Amino acid sequence: MKGGEVMTRDIEITWIYDAPVESVWNAWKDVNTLRQFWGPSGCKFIEFSVDFRVGGKYLYCTQFPDGRRVWVTGIYKKIVPNRELVFTDAFSDENGNIVPATSVGLDPAVPLEREAVVMLEPFQDGTKMKFLFRGVQRAMPEEHSDIAYTELCKSFARLSAIIERKS
Amino acid sequence: MSKHKSSSESATGELLQALAEPTRQKIVEVLLKDGELTAAQICEHFRVSNPAISQHLRVLRESGAVVVEKRAQYRVYSVNPDAIVELENWTHALRKMWERRFEALGRVLDKKRVESEEKGG
Fewer CB under 10 Å: which end of chain A, C or N? Predict the structure, then answer.
């Protein structure tokens, strides 16, 4: 695989939760739960604001172990309670103005905005969550996707630990 | 990021350019040590200091320094043996060139010595 073109890859993850659909849904809308599971591992949220309605904005600041701070913002595009959530994801300044991925030191091939789709459905005694993540302006370069994929899986595993029934 | 390589020289140039960057050198060294790693595993090695690993990986892949193989949900990276051969061939050609120059220099010096010995009598 040698060649000049940027290879791209959308992310699709299916995760099964041993918890009712409502619990998974609430985790996505409740900022206190989001703070516990979302974002890159090893980082902590400095700020997190959520305006959970269609057209509403979220803005958070996450701090990496080396002290580096990254702001992320997005808009809720679609909200169907307990069924489907669509939101955008972009790097920003502290005022929520979108900045290119290069300004946080990432690959210039990473699109300005990404879009996440969360789809929930009851599955056996729990919930099946289908998660899609793709570039808006252009597709995501595969190296970035590979790293994001692993981080997303870690996030969803953290959510499992938070909402699943303790037996 | 050209799609076409007109000669092996430009491929070598691209390789050397890719390897000229310290983080990318380190990635290649990590891959040589560990054999095969996913992008996320490579990131773990640079966790604190470098957010641009995906970009460096892309440059390395585009230059042919590393190859990617798909395994189920993951893609694993490894050093491209062809790239090492290419670099070896290049340094070998350089060495040959230097050897020829040293031989020529040696001949010139020998000649000078003989001349000065003849003069000095």
Answer: C
